[in-house]
Specification:
This protein is an alpha+beta fold. The protein has 4 domains: 177 residues, Glutaredoxin (3-Layer(aba) Sandwich), CATH 3.40.30; 329 residues, Alpha/alpha barrel (Glycosyltransferase); 75 residues, no CATH class; 76 residues. Helices cover 48% and strands 10% of the residues.
Length: 698
């Protein structure tokens, strides 16, 4: 419990049981006067024994408004006294427990019309929600009650209207259960209709002036432009291609992209991609690398390849454990100020740069005396701050060395600033996404160090989060310890990453592990009766209900990732059962695909794959030899989303093992359906095969 101490000056006054946890987010709250519990039986037993409602507070360690609410309310002695007297308080890291977050966020969105973090939900002792919201200020503001007022009202209702609360909680739980159910009798989507309708719907949201889709705040949401590139190819829609390339260019030029150190912030608060919310998330980097690789392959524009390189170099430099695991995120705040690490004043640049460098840099990055960023959430914001963006990117040749010198100086200055807090937990789900991005970039961009980084990452994950004896994948590792949580997100995303690594190397060891992971995923999460994949295992403790995630938000859902990767793996291994599982999953969510494609853009990728016979490039010969590497690079040098690349060793399609091989050199068989072209060493023939457009259906 939370205890007050007579510690020396400067030492924490309070320490609560969150000090025993590994989550960086929970540890941020370990010295609150609030008597916090982690999610678990101890909290529920106390709530039952003392007949108290539960305050469930969910956030994550790089969440700006979570920090604000902690400072204002959870560090406040008077607020903590009310919480400790009338409630049992539980803290949850949403990144460690997306299953819990999904259940209670659905409730908050259902009852308030919006959601976000921090999320604060009041529960009965048996975990049923009855009231909730997001951030509440310390004093009433703009029609929003204060947190203290909310606490007082809930405590009053708990005392005086218990039966009403119980009835409401039962009704809400029943509604949540009904929302979690899907019609397993759907017909398989017609396909072309859904794909074309979705593409038109996305293009209707396109911002032709600034790029992106929708208005401010503007999120990259890479699954949407990734789908539009497929849509453009399938239907010959050049407008879709232009929209995606414009969006990629605008994001890379804006302040949402770190112009000095690489990497993307989570979103832009304006419609111009200028002012970011500065936190950097691993899952954004992974998905955006995939998008920029596709943009590069489609357009041939080197700038898109360079963005992908810079993002990966940022991750390898700043978000990588010495053993190879990828850390989760970097905060928006530094020294209590959002963006302080990234922003510059006009005077700072004039003091750090020569006159010539200053003149070029201020014009190029759009730096002004007044600045372009003010933190409206801070009562005392830093003045005259500039977010760097490519305001005037056209330089004459003589200016380029000056700009490079200025960037090097500014990066060196920034390196001496106090860095934002970074969340150093290693999540199997997000690592799987980044693993796949790094592996694919290695072969597309011909970067050997990226391949080594991908191999090291997989070795780290297998050592820290995979139990080879029980074929179990755990979700989080940090500070020498893993959790005991199993999630579809972890299994599906790591499986997708391993398959990407296999296709980038055709190393049969990676395919063998992918098959193990696939079998474990099917065993623990697949619903063979109705289709789809459960988010949690059947024996997961303390869950109000079991759900099948069906929303592709900032991250694609586990079901969308699973459907897409099982289609690909089925083609590589000739596993009809995996293809059936993927198709049954798509059918389960057919109504979503038809009625609300904006909710499932990543599942649209799976539907697109399901409707197209994949092209198979089978490489026969020693996968470590130079000629194999050259053919591999060729196979990955074309934008062809409906292809698989495989070797002829390990658990591949048995037909691939029958293809004759030459002992002296590698060859490629280009196959579609049951037909293969004659083997070739000629890279131009492989390119011609992959570049052939599929026949468009009416």
């Amino acid at each position: 419990m939370s205890t007050a101490t007579n510690a020396p000056a400067g030492a924490p006054k309070h320490t609560n049981r969150l000090a025993l946890e590994k989550s960086p987010y929970l540890l941020q709250h370990q010295h609150n006067p609030v008597d916090w519990f982690p999610w678990g039986e101890a909290a529920f037993e106390k709530a039952r024994r003392e007949d108290k409602p539960i305050l469930l507070s969910i956030g994550y360690s790089t969440c700006h408004w979570c920090h604000v609410m902690e400072r204002e309310s959870f560090e406040d002695e008077a607020t903590a006294k009310v919480l400790n007297q009338h409630f049992v308080s539980i803290k949850v890291d949403r990144e460690e427990r997306p299953d819990l977050d999904k259940i209670y966020m659905t409730f908050v969105q259902m009852t308030t019309g919006s959601g976000g973090w921090p999320m604060n939900v009041f529960l009965t002792p048996d975990r049923q929600p009855f009231y909730g919201g997001t951030y509440w200020p310390p004093a009433p503001k703009q029609g929003r009650p204060s947190f203290s007022q909310v606490l007082a009202r809930v405590a009053e209702l708990w005392r005086e209207k218990r039966s009403d609360i119980t009835d409401s909680a039962n009704e809400i739980t029943a509604r949540l259960q009904s929302l979690a159910e899907h019609d397993s009798h759907n017909a398989f989507p017609a396909g072309e209709r859904e794909l074309h309708g979705a593409g038109q719907s996305f293009l209707h949201e396109y911002d032709p002036h600034h790029g992106g889709f929708g208005g401010a705040p503007k999120f990259p949401r890479p699954s949407q432009p990734l789908f539009l590139l497929r849509y453009a190819r399938r239907f010959g829609e050049t407008d879709a291609l232009k929209a995606v390339l414009h969006t990629c260019d605008a994001m890379a030029r804006g302040g949402m992209y770190d112009q000095l150190g690489g990497g993307f912030a989570r979103y832009s608060v304006d419609e111009k991609w200028l002012v970011p919310h500065f936190e950097k998330m691993l899952y954004d980097q992974a998905q955006l690398v995939q998008l920029y690789l596709d943009a590069y392959l489609v357009s041939g524009e080197a700038q898109f390849a360079e963005v992908a390189r810079e993002v990966i170099r940022y991750v390898l430099r700043d978000l990588t454990h010495p053993g190879g695991g990828f850390y989760s995120a970097e905060d928006a705040d530094s020294e209590g100020k959002e963006g302080k690490f990234y922003c510059w004043t006009h005077d700072e640049l004039s003091q750090r740069l020569t006159v010539e460098e200053f003149n070029v840099a201020t014009r190029y990055f759009g730096v002004t005396r007044a600045g372009n960023f003010l933190d409206h959430s801070d009562p005392e914001p830093l003045p005259n701050q500039n977010v760097l963006s490519l305001a005037d990117p056209k330089l004459v040749a003589a200016d380029q060395p000056l700009l490079e010198a200025a960037k090097a100086k500014l990066l060196a200055v920034r390196a001496r600033r106090v860095r934002p807090h970074f969340d150093d937990k290693v999540l199997a789900s997000w690592n799987g996404q980044m693993l796949g991005a790094v592996a694919r970039a290695a072969v597309v961009l011909q970067e050997e160090d990226f391949k080594l980084a991908a191999e090291r990452n997989l070795a780290f994950l297998k050592a820290k989060l995979w139990d080879a004896q029980t074929k179990t994948l755990y979700h989080r590792w940090r500070d020498g310890h893993r959790d005991d949580v199993q999630l579809l997100d972890a299994y599906a995303n790591l499986l997708a990453g391993v398959v990407e690594l296999y296709e980038a190397t055709v190393d049969p060891r990676h395919l063998e592990f992918a098959v193990e992971l696939a079998e474990a995923t099917m065993k623990r999460f697949y619903d063979p009766t109705h289709g789809g994949f459960w988010q949690t295992t059947a024996d997961a403790p303390h869950l109000l209900l079991r759900t099948k995630e069906d929303y592709d938000g900032a991250e694609p859902s586990g079901n969308s990732v699973a459907a897409l990767v099982f289609l690909k793996l089925a083609a590589i291994c000739d596993r009809k059962d995996w293809r059936e599982a993927a198709e049954k999953t798509i059918r389960l969510f057919a109504q979503r695909l038809h009625q609300m494609p904006q909710a499932v853009p990543h599942l649209l990728l799976a539907l697109d794959d399901a409707l197209q016979e994949p092209k198979r490039v089978v490489l026969v010969g020693d996968f470590t030899c130079g000629s194999t590497a050259a053919l591999l690079r060729t196979a990955h040098s074309v934008f062809e989303p409906h292809k698989v690349v495989l070797g002829n060793a390990g658990p591949v399609d048995p037909f691939a093992k029958t293809l004759p091989m030459n002992e002296e050199f590698a060859q490629a068989y280009c196959c579609t359906g049951t037909a293969c072209r004659p083997p070739t060493r000629d890279r131009s023939q492989v390119l011609e095969f992959l570049k052939t457009q599929p026949k468009l259906q009416p």
